[in-house]
Amino acid sequence: TRKLYSQTWDTGLRYKEGSYATQLVGSYSHSKDYNYDPRKGQYAISSSLDDSEQYNLQWGNTFKVAQGTVSAGAD
């Protein structure tokens, strides 16, 4: 049997002035993956738990130039 629990939180900021805009976005994700034999139960010695966390940060910039746009960013 498998049980999967997952949570994600996101946040961000934006700023714009004239032909320039910037954005900063951050996220956090946490998941738990339980694998076990239902006859023995979730807490048996043969059961396993994969617990993982992930952080992400993205930053992007945009400039309006003549008839187009130039963008750059980083993860």
TrEMBL record:
Subcellular locations according to the entry:
Cell outer membrane
Keywords per UniProt: Cell outer membrane, Membrane
Source species taxonomy: Bacteria, Pseudomonadati, Pseudomonadota, Gammaproteobacteria, Enterobacterales
Organism expressing this protein natively: Serratia marcescens
* Gene Ontology annotations for the cellular component aspect, listed alphabetically: cell outer membrane
* Name of the protein: Vitamin B12/cobalamin outer membrane transporter
